[in-house]
Amino acid sequence: MNDVKYNPNELLISIASRLMEDNATCFIGTGIPMLAASLAQKMHAPNLISIFEFGGIGAQLEKLPLAVGDMRTFNKGLVAAGICDIMEAGQCGFVEYGFLGGAQIDMYGNLNSTIIGDDHDKPKVRLPGSGGGNDVGSTCWKTIIIMQHGKRRFMPKIDFITTPGYLSGPGAREEAGLPPNTGPYRVVTDLCTLGFDETSKRMKLLALNPGITINDVVENTGFELIIPEDIKKNDVPSSEELRILREEVDQDKYYI
Amino acid sequence: MNSIMFKFPNIFEEIMKVISSGIGELIQPPDMNAFREWNRTQKPKALIDKRMSEKEAVSMYLQDGQYIGVELYGTVRAPMSLVREIIRQGYKNLNCAGQGVYESDLLAAANTVKKLDWTYIGFEVYGLSNSVRRAVEGGYVKKVVEWSNAALSWRFKAAAMGVPFIPTRVMLGTDTYKYSAAKVVECPFTGEKLCLLPALILDVGFIHVHRADKYGNCQIDGISGFAAEMARASKRLIISTEEIVDEDVIRSQPDRTIIPYYLVDAVVEAPFGSHPGEMTGLYERDEKHIKSYANDTKNIEQTNKYLNEWIYNIKDHDEYLKKVGDERLQKLRIGGQKS
Question: Which chain B residues contact residue A55 at CB under 8 A?
Protein backbone atom coordinates (compact mmCIF):
# COMPACT_ATOMS: atom_id res chain seq x y z
CA MET A 1 0.00 0.00 0.00
CA ASN A 2 2.83 2.41 0.80
CA ASP A 3 3.97 2.65 -2.80
CA VAL A 4 0.63 4.08 -3.99
CA LYS A 5 1.22 7.60 -5.33
CA TYR A 6 -1.28 10.32 -4.45
CA ASN A 7 -1.31 14.11 -4.24
CA PRO A 8 -2.15 16.23 -1.16
CA ASN A 9 -5.69 17.01 -2.36
CA GLU A 10 -6.44 13.32 -2.89
CA LEU A 11 -5.31 12.60 0.67
CA LEU A 12 -7.42 15.46 2.07
CA ILE A 13 -10.51 14.31 0.16
CA SER A 14 -10.09 10.67 1.21
CA ILE A 15 -9.69 11.51 4.89
CA ALA A 16 -12.66 13.92 4.83
CA SER A 17 -14.84 11.39 3.05
CA ARG A 18 -14.18 8.74 5.71
CA LEU A 19 -15.79 11.10 8.27
CA MET A 20 -19.06 11.12 6.32
CA GLU A 21 -21.56 8.66 7.80
CA ASP A 22 -24.09 6.65 5.87
CA ASN A 23 -27.69 7.88 6.38
CA ALA A 24 -26.52 11.16 7.93
CA THR A 25 -27.62 14.58 6.71
CA CYS A 26 -24.60 16.57 5.54
CA PHE A 27 -24.46 20.18 4.50
CA ILE A 28 -22.01 20.31 1.57
CA GLY A 29 -20.12 23.43 0.46
CA THR A 30 -18.12 24.27 -2.65
CA GLY A 31 -14.95 22.37 -3.49
CA ILE A 32 -13.37 19.58 -1.48
CA PRO A 33 -16.53 18.74 0.55
CA MET A 34 -18.33 18.03 -2.74
CA LEU A 35 -15.59 15.63 -3.83
CA ALA A 36 -15.48 14.00 -0.40
CA ALA A 37 -19.26 13.50 -0.35
CA SER A 38 -19.25 12.00 -3.82
CA LEU A 39 -16.40 9.63 -2.85
CA ALA A 40 -18.17 8.66 0.39
CA GLN A 41 -21.35 7.76 -1.55
CA LYS A 42 -19.34 5.49 -3.81
CA MET A 43 -17.39 3.89 -0.95
CA HIS A 44 -19.03 3.35 2.44
CA ALA A 45 -22.00 5.75 2.56
CA PRO A 46 -24.36 5.15 -0.40
CA ASN A 47 -27.20 6.79 1.53
CA LEU A 48 -25.34 9.87 2.65
CA ILE A 49 -27.92 12.65 2.39
CA SER A 50 -26.21 15.62 0.79
CA ILE A 51 -27.80 19.00 1.47
CA PHE A 52 -26.90 22.01 -0.68
CA GLU A 53 -27.80 25.49 0.44
CA PHE A 54 -29.83 26.61 -2.57
CA GLY A 55 -32.28 23.72 -2.28
CA GLY A 56 -30.87 20.34 -3.34
CA ILE A 57 -31.46 17.45 -0.90
CA GLY A 58 -30.42 13.80 -1.27
CA ALA A 59 -28.70 13.94 -4.66
CA GLN A 60 -26.82 11.06 -6.16
CA LEU A 61 -23.52 12.80 -6.77
CA GLU A 62 -22.60 11.13 -10.02
CA LYS A 63 -20.99 14.21 -11.53
CA LEU A 64 -19.08 16.80 -9.55
CA PRO A 65 -21.17 19.95 -8.89
CA LEU A 66 -19.28 23.10 -9.85
CA ALA A 67 -21.64 25.40 -7.99
CA VAL A 68 -23.71 24.92 -4.81
CA GLY A 69 -26.82 25.68 -6.84
CA ASP A 70 -26.14 23.80 -10.04
CA MET A 71 -28.34 20.98 -11.30
CA ARG A 72 -25.91 18.29 -10.18
CA THR A 73 -26.72 19.24 -6.55
CA PHE A 74 -30.15 17.64 -7.00
CA ASN A 75 -29.27 15.02 -9.62
CA LYS A 76 -31.74 12.14 -9.00
CA GLY A 77 -32.35 13.97 -5.73
CA LEU A 78 -35.13 13.62 -3.21
CA VAL A 79 -36.02 17.29 -2.99
CA ALA A 80 -35.43 20.42 -5.05
CA ALA A 81 -36.53 23.17 -2.66
CA GLY A 82 -35.25 26.68 -1.96
CA ILE A 83 -32.64 28.24 0.31
CA CYS A 84 -35.13 29.13 3.06
CA ASP A 85 -36.31 25.50 3.33
CA ILE A 86 -32.70 24.36 3.69
CA MET A 87 -31.61 26.99 6.20
CA GLU A 88 -34.78 26.47 8.24
CA ALA A 89 -34.12 22.70 8.32
CA GLY A 90 -30.70 23.55 9.76
CA GLN A 91 -32.15 25.99 12.28
CA CYS A 92 -34.67 23.30 13.36
CA GLY A 93 -31.88 20.77 14.02
CA PHE A 94 -32.28 18.41 11.05
CA VAL A 95 -28.72 18.74 9.76
CA GLU A 96 -26.09 16.62 11.53
CA TYR A 97 -22.87 17.59 9.76
CA GLY A 98 -21.70 20.72 8.03
CA PHE A 99 -18.53 20.88 5.96
CA LEU A 100 -16.71 24.19 5.80
CA GLY A 101 -13.53 25.81 4.58
CA GLY A 102 -11.89 29.14 5.33
CA ALA A 103 -8.79 31.27 4.86
CA GLN A 104 -7.93 31.48 8.59
CA ILE A 105 -8.80 29.52 11.73
CA ASP A 106 -8.01 30.00 15.44
CA MET A 107 -7.69 27.57 18.35
CA TYR A 108 -11.45 27.62 19.00
CA GLY A 109 -12.31 26.77 15.40
CA ASN A 110 -13.55 30.26 14.50
CA LEU A 111 -13.22 30.79 10.74
CA ASN A 112 -12.43 33.78 8.55
CA SER A 113 -13.53 33.90 4.92
CA THR A 114 -14.32 37.64 4.76
CA ILE A 115 -11.21 39.85 4.73
CA ILE A 116 -7.44 39.83 5.19
CA GLY A 117 -6.32 42.95 7.07
CA ASP A 118 -7.46 44.78 10.19
CA ASP A 119 -9.78 47.36 8.62
CA HIS A 120 -13.10 46.00 7.38
CA ASP A 121 -13.74 49.07 5.22
CA LYS A 122 -10.25 49.05 3.67
CA PRO A 123 -9.29 45.39 3.49
CA LYS A 124 -5.92 44.23 2.16
CA VAL A 125 -7.73 41.37 0.48
CA ARG A 126 -11.47 41.03 0.08
CA LEU A 127 -12.45 37.36 0.31
CA PRO A 128 -15.80 35.85 -0.83
CA GLY A 129 -17.59 36.39 2.52
CA SER A 130 -19.81 34.19 4.66
CA GLY A 131 -22.08 32.71 2.04
CA GLY A 132 -23.76 29.85 3.86
CA GLY A 133 -20.69 29.38 6.10
CA ASN A 134 -21.98 31.30 9.09
CA ASP A 135 -25.37 29.54 8.84
CA VAL A 136 -23.78 26.09 8.73
CA GLY A 137 -21.41 26.90 11.59
CA SER A 138 -24.29 28.34 13.64
CA THR A 139 -26.92 25.65 13.18
CA CYS A 140 -25.45 22.23 12.21
CA TRP A 141 -24.84 19.85 15.12
CA LYS A 142 -21.24 19.12 14.14
CA THR A 143 -19.10 21.10 11.73
CA ILE A 144 -16.09 19.64 9.98
CA ILE A 145 -13.55 22.10 8.67
CA ILE A 146 -11.28 21.26 5.76
CA MET A 147 -8.19 23.46 5.29
CA GLN A 148 -4.57 23.54 4.20
CA HIS A 149 -2.28 23.63 7.24
CA GLY A 150 0.10 26.57 7.72
CA LYS A 151 1.07 29.34 10.17
CA ARG A 152 -0.67 32.01 8.09
CA ARG A 153 -3.89 30.00 8.27
CA PHE A 154 -3.76 28.57 11.81
CA MET A 155 -3.49 31.83 13.70
CA PRO A 156 -3.66 32.99 17.34
CA LYS A 157 -6.02 35.78 16.25
CA ILE A 158 -7.84 35.74 12.95
CA ASP A 159 -8.63 38.99 11.11
CA PHE A 160 -12.40 38.49 11.11
CA ILE A 161 -14.76 35.92 12.64
CA THR A 162 -17.01 35.06 9.70
CA THR A 163 -18.27 31.74 11.07
CA PRO A 164 -18.52 30.85 14.75
CA GLY A 165 -16.40 28.10 16.22
CA TYR A 166 -16.38 28.04 20.02
CA LEU A 167 -15.90 31.86 19.89
CA SER A 168 -13.91 32.84 23.03
CA GLY A 169 -14.08 29.40 24.68
CA PRO A 170 -16.34 27.25 26.88
CA GLY A 171 -19.92 28.53 27.11
CA ALA A 172 -19.36 31.37 24.63
CA ARG A 173 -21.61 29.95 21.89
CA GLU A 174 -24.51 29.53 24.31
CA GLU A 175 -23.85 32.98 25.79
CA ALA A 176 -24.04 34.49 22.28
CA GLY A 177 -27.41 32.79 21.75
CA LEU A 178 -26.31 30.02 19.39
CA PRO A 179 -28.15 26.68 19.73
CA PRO A 180 -26.65 24.48 22.49
CA ASN A 181 -24.53 21.37 21.77
CA THR A 182 -23.39 22.63 18.38
CA GLY A 183 -19.94 23.61 17.15
CA PRO A 184 -16.79 22.46 15.39
CA TYR A 185 -16.11 18.73 15.58
CA ARG A 186 -13.10 18.01 13.36
CA VAL A 187 -10.50 19.92 11.36
CA VAL A 188 -9.06 17.96 8.45
CA THR A 189 -5.79 19.27 6.97
CA ASP A 190 -3.03 18.10 4.65
CA LEU A 191 -0.99 17.29 7.78
CA CYS A 192 -3.41 15.81 10.30
CA THR A 193 -6.88 15.47 11.78
CA LEU A 194 -7.72 17.67 14.75
CA GLY A 195 -10.58 17.72 17.25
CA PHE A 196 -11.62 19.91 20.18
CA ASP A 197 -11.07 19.33 23.89
CA GLU A 198 -14.40 18.78 25.66
CA THR A 199 -13.77 21.15 28.55
CA SER A 200 -11.47 23.87 27.19
CA LYS A 201 -12.94 23.75 23.63
CA ARG A 202 -9.36 24.21 22.34
CA MET A 203 -8.09 22.43 19.26
CA LYS A 204 -6.25 19.17 19.83
CA LEU A 205 -4.31 16.78 17.63
CA LEU A 206 -6.07 13.48 16.93
CA ALA A 207 -4.29 11.77 14.03
CA LEU A 208 -1.27 12.34 11.83
CA ASN A 209 -1.21 11.94 8.08
CA PRO A 210 1.32 9.48 6.58
CA GLY A 211 4.91 10.70 6.92
CA ILE A 212 3.98 13.66 9.14
CA THR A 213 5.43 14.15 12.64
CA ILE A 214 3.97 15.95 15.66
CA ASN A 215 6.69 18.52 15.18
CA ASP A 216 5.57 19.20 11.59
CA VAL A 217 2.09 19.99 12.88
CA VAL A 218 3.33 22.17 15.75
CA GLU A 219 5.68 24.07 13.42
CA ASN A 220 2.83 24.84 11.06
CA THR A 221 0.35 25.95 13.72
CA GLY A 222 0.40 29.54 14.96
CA PHE A 223 -1.16 28.73 18.34
CA GLU A 224 -0.61 26.14 21.08
CA LEU A 225 -2.26 22.84 20.28
CA ILE A 226 -3.30 20.23 22.81
CA ILE A 227 -1.14 17.15 22.10
CA PRO A 228 -2.59 14.07 23.81
CA GLU A 229 -0.56 10.91 24.50
CA ASP A 230 -2.47 8.70 22.14
CA ILE A 231 -2.27 9.98 18.57
CA LYS A 232 -3.63 7.90 15.72
CA LYS A 233 -2.36 7.60 12.16
CA ASN A 234 -4.51 8.33 9.12
CA ASP A 235 -4.33 5.71 6.39
CA VAL A 236 -3.09 6.66 2.94
CA PRO A 237 -5.78 6.77 0.25
CA SER A 238 -6.54 3.21 -0.83
CA SER A 239 -6.14 2.24 -4.46
CA GLU A 240 -9.94 1.93 -4.65
CA GLU A 241 -10.43 5.47 -3.26
CA LEU A 242 -7.90 6.83 -5.74
CA ARG A 243 -9.45 4.96 -8.66
CA ILE A 244 -12.93 6.31 -7.86
CA LEU A 245 -11.62 9.83 -7.31
CA ARG A 246 -9.69 9.93 -10.57
CA GLU A 247 -11.99 7.99 -12.84
CA GLU A 248 -15.41 8.94 -11.50
CA VAL A 249 -15.53 11.83 -9.01
CA ASP A 250 -13.21 14.36 -10.66
CA GLN A 251 -12.69 13.01 -14.13
CA ASP A 252 -12.50 16.56 -15.50
CA LYS A 253 -9.65 17.32 -13.07
CA TYR A 254 -10.98 20.46 -11.39
CA TYR A 255 -9.33 19.63 -8.08
CA ILE A 256 -6.99 16.66 -8.43
CA MET B 1 -33.47 54.67 24.59
CA ASN B 2 -32.24 51.67 22.66
CA SER B 3 -35.32 49.51 23.13
CA ILE B 4 -38.72 48.84 21.66
CA MET B 5 -41.70 49.51 23.95
CA PHE B 6 -44.79 47.35 24.10
CA LYS B 7 -47.48 48.92 26.29
CA PHE B 8 -50.12 46.90 28.07
CA PRO B 9 -52.10 49.68 29.84
CA ASN B 10 -52.93 49.28 33.54
CA ILE B 11 -51.63 45.74 33.81
CA PHE B 12 -47.84 45.66 33.38
CA GLU B 13 -45.14 46.95 31.13
CA GLU B 14 -42.80 44.72 29.18
CA ILE B 15 -39.75 45.76 27.28
CA MET B 16 -38.15 43.74 24.51
CA LYS B 17 -34.55 44.43 25.30
CA VAL B 18 -32.16 45.27 22.48
CA ILE B 19 -28.82 43.89 23.66
CA SER B 20 -26.66 45.15 20.80
CA SER B 21 -26.72 46.48 17.26
CA GLY B 22 -24.49 45.73 14.28
CA ILE B 23 -22.46 48.74 13.13
CA GLY B 24 -23.19 48.24 9.42
CA GLU B 25 -25.35 50.73 7.56
CA LEU B 26 -28.99 49.77 7.05
CA ILE B 27 -28.82 50.64 3.35
CA GLN B 28 -32.51 50.06 2.67
CA PRO B 29 -34.59 50.72 5.83
CA PRO B 30 -37.93 48.85 5.72
CA ASP B 31 -41.24 50.73 5.72
CA MET B 32 -43.96 48.12 5.68
CA ASN B 33 -46.92 50.51 5.56
CA ALA B 34 -45.43 52.28 2.56
CA PHE B 35 -44.86 48.83 0.99
CA ARG B 36 -48.54 47.91 1.53
CA GLU B 37 -49.63 51.22 0.03
CA TRP B 38 -47.28 50.68 -2.94
CA ASN B 39 -48.60 47.18 -3.52
CA ARG B 40 -52.16 48.49 -3.39
CA THR B 41 -51.72 51.42 -5.73
CA GLN B 42 -48.76 50.59 -8.01
CA LYS B 43 -49.27 46.90 -8.74
CA PRO B 44 -52.18 46.21 -11.11
CA LYS B 45 -54.38 43.30 -10.07
CA ALA B 46 -55.93 43.00 -13.52
CA LEU B 47 -54.47 40.48 -15.96
CA ILE B 48 -52.61 42.75 -18.34
CA ASP B 49 -50.07 41.95 -21.02
CA LYS B 50 -46.62 42.83 -19.59
CA ARG B 51 -44.42 41.62 -22.45
CA MET B 52 -41.64 44.00 -23.48
CA SER B 53 -38.00 44.04 -24.54
CA GLU B 54 -35.18 44.04 -21.97
CA LYS B 55 -34.32 47.57 -23.06
CA GLU B 56 -37.86 48.80 -22.40
CA ALA B 57 -38.17 46.94 -19.09
CA VAL B 58 -34.89 48.19 -17.62
CA SER B 59 -35.26 51.80 -18.79
CA MET B 60 -38.90 51.95 -17.67
CA TYR B 61 -38.44 50.54 -14.17
CA LEU B 62 -34.85 51.11 -13.05
CA GLN B 63 -33.51 54.49 -11.97
CA ASP B 64 -29.93 55.25 -11.01
CA GLY B 65 -29.40 55.28 -7.25
CA GLN B 66 -31.94 52.51 -6.66
CA TYR B 67 -31.47 49.24 -4.78
CA ILE B 68 -31.54 46.05 -6.87
CA GLY B 69 -31.36 42.29 -6.38
CA VAL B 70 -30.58 39.49 -8.82
CA GLU B 71 -31.65 35.86 -8.37
CA LEU B 72 -30.36 33.05 -8.36
CA TYR B 73 -26.70 33.61 -9.11
CA GLY B 74 -24.39 34.13 -12.05
CA THR B 75 -23.81 30.58 -13.21
CA VAL B 76 -27.24 29.23 -12.29
CA ARG B 77 -30.61 30.49 -13.58
CA ALA B 78 -29.56 34.15 -13.45
CA PRO B 79 -31.21 36.84 -15.58
CA MET B 80 -27.98 37.53 -17.46
CA SER B 81 -29.61 39.22 -20.44
CA LEU B 82 -31.12 41.74 -17.99
CA VAL B 83 -27.82 42.20 -16.12
CA ARG B 84 -26.08 42.91 -19.43
CA GLU B 85 -28.81 45.44 -20.26
CA ILE B 86 -28.34 47.21 -16.89
CA ILE B 87 -24.64 47.56 -17.68
CA ARG B 88 -25.31 48.58 -21.28
CA GLN B 89 -27.58 51.41 -20.12
CA GLY B 90 -24.75 52.79 -17.98
CA TYR B 91 -26.16 52.88 -14.43
CA LYS B 92 -23.38 53.88 -12.01
CA ASN B 93 -24.85 54.29 -8.53
CA LEU B 94 -26.87 51.22 -7.78
CA ASN B 95 -27.05 49.54 -4.39
CA CYS B 96 -27.20 45.79 -4.50
CA ALA B 97 -27.89 42.63 -2.50
CA GLY B 98 -24.68 40.71 -3.14
CA GLN B 99 -25.24 37.03 -3.49
CA GLY B 100 -23.36 36.42 -6.62
CA VAL B 101 -20.81 34.95 -8.91
CA TYR B 102 -20.43 35.98 -12.53
CA GLU B 103 -23.22 38.60 -12.52
CA SER B 104 -21.85 40.41 -9.45
CA ASP B 105 -18.37 40.42 -10.94
CA LEU B 106 -19.75 41.92 -14.18
CA LEU B 107 -21.68 44.63 -12.31
CA ALA B 108 -18.54 45.51 -10.35
CA ALA B 109 -16.35 45.40 -13.49
CA ALA B 110 -18.64 48.01 -15.07
CA ASN B 111 -18.47 50.18 -11.90
CA THR B 112 -22.22 49.91 -11.44
CA VAL B 113 -22.41 49.34 -7.68
CA LYS B 114 -21.98 51.86 -4.84
CA LYS B 115 -23.20 49.98 -1.76
CA LEU B 116 -23.49 46.26 -1.16
CA ASP B 117 -25.32 44.07 1.31
CA TRP B 118 -22.82 41.25 0.95
CA THR B 119 -23.04 37.56 1.68
CA TYR B 120 -20.93 35.74 -0.92
CA ILE B 121 -19.26 37.06 -4.02
CA GLY B 122 -16.73 34.76 -5.61
CA PHE B 123 -16.13 32.46 -8.53
CA GLU B 124 -16.56 29.13 -6.75
CA VAL B 125 -14.18 26.67 -8.51
CA TYR B 126 -12.30 29.58 -10.09
CA GLY B 127 -11.59 31.35 -6.80
CA LEU B 128 -12.04 35.01 -5.87
CA SER B 129 -14.06 37.55 -7.82
CA ASN B 130 -11.34 39.81 -9.24
CA SER B 131 -13.50 42.74 -10.35
CA VAL B 132 -15.33 42.88 -7.01
CA ARG B 133 -11.97 42.69 -5.22
CA ARG B 134 -10.66 45.63 -7.24
CA ALA B 135 -13.84 47.63 -6.65
CA VAL B 136 -13.82 47.02 -2.87
CA GLU B 137 -10.08 47.19 -2.20
CA GLY B 138 -9.84 50.26 -4.46
CA GLY B 139 -12.74 51.99 -2.67
CA TYR B 140 -15.07 52.26 -5.68
CA VAL B 141 -17.69 50.31 -3.76
CA LYS B 142 -18.34 52.78 -0.93
CA LYS B 143 -19.96 50.51 1.61
CA VAL B 144 -20.01 46.78 2.30
CA VAL B 145 -22.43 45.45 4.92
CA GLU B 146 -21.99 41.79 5.93
CA TRP B 147 -24.69 39.09 6.10
CA SER B 148 -24.92 35.33 5.72
CA ASN B 149 -26.81 33.56 2.92
CA ALA B 150 -29.64 32.57 5.26
CA ALA B 151 -29.75 36.13 6.59
CA LEU B 152 -30.22 37.75 3.18
CA SER B 153 -32.85 35.19 2.17
CA TRP B 154 -34.68 35.63 5.46
CA ARG B 155 -34.54 39.41 5.05
CA PHE B 156 -36.45 38.89 1.79
CA LYS B 157 -38.75 36.48 3.59
CA ALA B 158 -39.56 39.10 6.24
CA ALA B 159 -40.45 41.59 3.50
CA ALA B 160 -42.50 38.89 1.76
CA MET B 161 -44.39 38.34 5.02
CA GLY B 162 -45.04 42.06 5.31
CA VAL B 163 -43.20 42.42 8.63
CA PRO B 164 -40.23 44.73 9.37
CA PHE B 165 -37.92 42.08 10.84
CA ILE B 166 -37.51 38.36 11.42
CA PRO B 167 -35.90 36.70 14.47
CA THR B 168 -33.22 34.07 13.70
CA ARG B 169 -30.41 32.05 15.28
CA VAL B 170 -27.59 32.81 12.84
CA MET B 171 -24.75 35.39 12.78
CA LEU B 172 -24.71 35.52 16.61
CA GLY B 173 -21.34 36.08 18.28
CA THR B 174 -19.40 36.84 15.08
CA ASP B 175 -17.89 39.75 13.15
CA THR B 176 -20.37 38.93 10.38
CA TYR B 177 -22.98 40.19 12.87
CA LYS B 178 -20.84 43.11 14.07
CA TYR B 179 -20.49 44.50 10.52
CA SER B 180 -24.16 43.88 9.65
CA ALA B 181 -27.18 46.04 10.40
CA ALA B 182 -28.85 43.31 12.48
CA LYS B 183 -29.75 43.59 16.17
CA VAL B 184 -29.50 41.10 19.02
CA VAL B 185 -32.49 41.09 21.35
CA GLU B 186 -33.73 39.09 24.30
CA CYS B 187 -36.66 36.97 23.16
CA PRO B 188 -39.84 38.21 24.94
CA PHE B 189 -41.14 34.62 25.12
CA THR B 190 -38.07 32.53 26.03
CA GLY B 191 -35.44 35.01 27.21
CA GLU B 192 -32.91 33.64 24.67
CA LYS B 193 -30.76 35.87 22.52
CA LEU B 194 -31.99 36.20 18.96
CA CYS B 195 -30.61 37.92 15.89
CA LEU B 196 -33.22 40.22 14.36
CA LEU B 197 -32.84 40.76 10.64
CA PRO B 198 -34.45 43.82 9.05
CA ALA B 199 -36.78 43.18 6.10
CA LEU B 200 -35.16 43.97 2.74
CA ILE B 201 -37.46 45.53 0.16
CA LEU B 202 -35.88 45.93 -3.27
CA ASP B 203 -36.64 48.84 -5.57
CA VAL B 204 -36.21 46.46 -8.49
CA GLY B 205 -35.78 42.67 -8.53
CA PHE B 206 -34.59 40.63 -11.52
CA ILE B 207 -35.43 36.91 -11.84
CA HIS B 208 -35.01 34.45 -14.70
CA VAL B 209 -37.54 31.60 -14.98
CA HIS B 210 -38.27 28.60 -17.19
CA ARG B 211 -41.70 29.74 -18.32
CA ALA B 212 -44.13 32.59 -17.76
CA ASP B 213 -47.35 33.72 -19.36
CA LYS B 214 -47.74 37.25 -20.68
CA TYR B 215 -49.25 38.38 -17.37
CA GLY B 216 -46.20 37.27 -15.37
CA ASN B 217 -47.31 33.99 -13.78
CA CYS B 218 -43.97 32.18 -13.49
CA GLN B 219 -42.81 28.58 -13.12
CA ILE B 220 -39.31 27.33 -12.28
CA ASP B 221 -37.97 23.79 -12.71
CA GLY B 222 -35.51 22.38 -10.17
CA ILE B 223 -34.35 24.24 -7.05
CA SER B 224 -36.03 27.57 -6.50
CA GLY B 225 -33.17 29.39 -4.73
CA PHE B 226 -34.72 32.50 -3.18
CA ALA B 227 -37.03 33.36 -6.08
CA ALA B 228 -40.27 33.06 -4.12
CA GLU B 229 -39.05 35.33 -1.32
CA MET B 230 -37.26 37.91 -3.47
CA ALA B 231 -40.18 38.22 -5.88
CA ARG B 232 -42.44 39.13 -2.96
CA ALA B 233 -39.87 41.59 -1.62
CA SER B 234 -39.55 43.64 -4.83
CA LYS B 235 -41.41 46.88 -5.50
CA ARG B 236 -40.71 46.39 -9.19
CA LEU B 237 -40.06 42.92 -10.55
CA ILE B 238 -38.66 42.26 -14.00
CA ILE B 239 -38.92 38.69 -15.18
CA SER B 240 -36.95 37.19 -18.03
CA THR B 241 -38.13 33.82 -19.19
CA GLU B 242 -36.88 31.03 -21.45
CA GLU B 243 -40.30 31.03 -23.09
CA ILE B 244 -43.58 32.86 -22.86
CA VAL B 245 -46.31 30.23 -22.70
CA ASP B 246 -50.03 30.35 -23.18
CA GLU B 247 -52.12 31.09 -20.09
CA ASP B 248 -53.57 27.55 -20.45
CA VAL B 249 -50.16 26.04 -19.72
CA ILE B 250 -50.09 27.86 -16.38
CA ARG B 251 -53.71 27.01 -15.63
CA SER B 252 -53.10 23.30 -16.31
CA GLN B 253 -50.59 23.18 -13.40
CA PRO B 254 -51.26 26.13 -11.12
CA ASP B 255 -49.47 24.38 -8.24
CA ARG B 256 -46.22 25.02 -10.15
CA THR B 257 -46.66 28.81 -10.17
CA ILE B 258 -43.99 30.13 -7.81
CA ILE B 259 -44.39 33.81 -8.74
CA PRO B 260 -47.95 35.08 -9.23
CA TYR B 261 -48.63 37.72 -11.91
CA TYR B 262 -49.48 40.55 -9.50
CA LEU B 263 -45.87 40.66 -8.28
CA VAL B 264 -44.57 41.15 -11.82
CA ASP B 265 -44.10 44.40 -13.77
CA ALA B 266 -42.41 43.21 -16.95
CA VAL B 267 -42.06 39.91 -18.81
CA VAL B 268 -39.10 39.66 -21.17
CA GLU B 269 -38.66 36.62 -23.39
CA ALA B 270 -35.01 35.53 -23.28
CA PRO B 271 -34.13 32.05 -24.53
CA PHE B 272 -30.69 31.09 -23.18
CA GLY B 273 -31.18 34.11 -20.90
CA SER B 274 -28.94 32.56 -18.24
CA HIS B 275 -25.98 32.09 -20.63
CA PRO B 276 -23.11 31.55 -19.81
CA GLY B 277 -24.83 30.07 -16.77
CA GLU B 278 -27.02 26.99 -16.80
CA MET B 279 -30.76 26.36 -16.79
CA THR B 280 -32.03 23.16 -15.16
CA GLY B 281 -33.30 20.66 -17.72
CA LEU B 282 -32.62 22.97 -20.68
CA TYR B 283 -28.92 23.73 -21.03
CA GLU B 284 -25.56 23.30 -19.31
CA ARG B 285 -23.29 26.12 -18.24
CA ASP B 286 -20.84 27.32 -20.89
CA GLU B 287 -17.67 26.30 -19.09
CA LYS B 288 -15.37 27.67 -21.78
CA HIS B 289 -16.98 31.12 -21.62
CA ILE B 290 -17.05 31.25 -17.79
CA LYS B 291 -13.46 30.08 -17.45
CA SER B 292 -12.26 32.52 -20.04
CA TYR B 293 -14.11 35.41 -18.35
CA ALA B 294 -12.74 34.44 -14.91
CA ASN B 295 -9.29 34.49 -16.46
CA ASP B 296 -9.89 37.84 -18.23
CA THR B 297 -10.84 39.51 -14.95
CA LYS B 298 -7.32 39.06 -13.60
CA ASN B 299 -6.43 42.12 -15.63
CA ILE B 300 -8.45 45.32 -15.98
CA GLU B 301 -7.74 45.84 -19.70
CA GLN B 302 -8.89 42.31 -20.51
CA THR B 303 -11.98 42.86 -18.38
CA ASN B 304 -12.85 46.05 -20.25
CA LYS B 305 -12.25 44.29 -23.53
CA TYR B 306 -14.74 41.63 -22.47
CA LEU B 307 -17.32 44.27 -21.48
CA ASN B 308 -16.96 45.95 -24.87
CA GLU B 309 -17.06 42.74 -26.81
CA TRP B 310 -19.98 41.08 -25.03
CA ILE B 311 -22.05 44.00 -23.71
CA TYR B 312 -21.36 47.57 -24.89
CA ASN B 313 -20.85 46.73 -28.56
CA ILE B 314 -23.86 44.43 -28.64
CA LYS B 315 -27.34 45.82 -29.21
CA ASP B 316 -29.50 43.31 -27.39
CA HIS B 317 -29.94 39.71 -26.32
CA ASP B 318 -30.73 38.50 -29.85
CA GLU B 319 -27.46 39.90 -31.09
CA TYR B 320 -25.67 38.39 -28.07
CA LEU B 321 -27.01 34.93 -28.93
CA LYS B 322 -25.93 35.38 -32.54
CA LYS B 323 -22.44 36.20 -31.31
CA VAL B 324 -22.33 33.09 -29.12
CA GLY B 325 -23.46 31.18 -32.17
CA ASP B 326 -26.16 28.65 -32.79
CA GLU B 327 -23.77 25.75 -33.02
CA ARG B 328 -22.37 26.45 -29.54
CA LEU B 329 -25.85 26.95 -28.04
CA GLN B 330 -27.07 23.66 -29.48
CA LYS B 331 -24.11 21.88 -27.92
CA LEU B 332 -25.02 23.32 -24.52
CA ARG B 333 -28.59 22.08 -24.83
CA ILE B 334 -29.26 19.10 -22.59
CA GLY B 335 -29.64 16.09 -24.83
CA GLY B 336 -27.96 18.09 -27.61
CA GLN B 337 -24.84 17.17 -29.52
CA LYS B 338 -21.74 17.28 -27.28
CA SER B 339 -18.46 18.78 -28.32
Answer: 222-225
Set of chain A residues whose Cβ sits within 8 Å of the Cβ of B339:
none
Give the number of other Cβ atoms within 10 Å of residue A192's Cβ.
26
User: How many Å lie between the alpha carbon of B9 and the closest alpha carbon of chain A?
Assistant: 31
Is B155 within a domain?
A: no
Mind listing the pLDDT tens digit for each residue in B267-287? 999 999 999 999 999 999 999
In this complex, the residue of B151, B173, B229 whose CB is nearest that of residue A178 is: B173
Residue B339 has a pLDDT of 45
Question: Is B119 domain-assigned?
Answer: yes
How far, in Å, CA of B227 to CA of B240, rounded? 13
The domains located in chain A, with CATH, are 8-249 (3.40.1080.10)
Chain A residue numbers with beta carbons less than 8 Å from the beta carbon of B98 are: 129
Owning domain of residue B135: 32-149+201-276+283-332
Q: Which of A10, A21, A53, A248 is catalytic?
A: A53
Q: Which residues contact A103 (CB under 8 A, 6 or more apart)?
A: A112, A113, A116, A127, A153
Q: Tell me if residue A247 is catalytic.
A: no
Contact B148 A80 (CB under 8 A): no
Q: How far is A110 from chain B (nearest CA, A)?
A: 9
For the purposes of burial, counting CB atoms within 10 Å of the CB of A150, is it exposed (0-12), middle (13-18) or buried (19 or more)? middle
In this prediction the ipTM stands at 0.96
Question: Which residues in chain A have their CB less than 8 angstroms from residue B153's CB?
Answer: 83-84, 87
- Does any CB of chain B come closer than 8 Å to the CB of residue A250? no
Q: Which B residues in the span 57-116 are in contact with A, Cβ-Cβ below 8 Å?
A: 72-73, 75-77, 98, 101
Distance CA A147, CA A220 (A): 13
Distance CA B278, CA B287 (A): 10
Domain-embedded: residue B248: yes
Residue A163 has pLDDT above 90, yes or no: yes
> Domain tally for chain B?
1
Give per-residue pLDDT as tens, A110-153.
999 999 999 999 999 999 999 999 999 999 999 999 999 999 99
pLDDT, residue B13, reads 64
- Round the average pLDDT of chain B to a whole number and report it: 94
Would you call B222 and A164 a contact, using CB atoms and an 8 Å cutoff? no
Which residues of chain B are modeled with pLDDT < 50?
1, 339
Render B162-204 in DSSP notation, one character per residue: T-SEEEESSSTTSHHHHTSS-EEEE-TTT--EEEEEE---EEE
pLDDT cut 90: percent of chain A above it: 90
Q: What is the CATH number of the domain that holds B113?
A: 3.40.1080.10
Domain assignment present for residue B190? The answer is no
Cis peptide before B276 (omega within 30 of 0): yes
Reported as a single tens digit per residue, the pLDDT across A167-223 is 999 999 999 999 999 999 999 999 999 999 999 999 999 999 999 999 999 999 999
What pTM was estimated for this model as a whole? 0.95
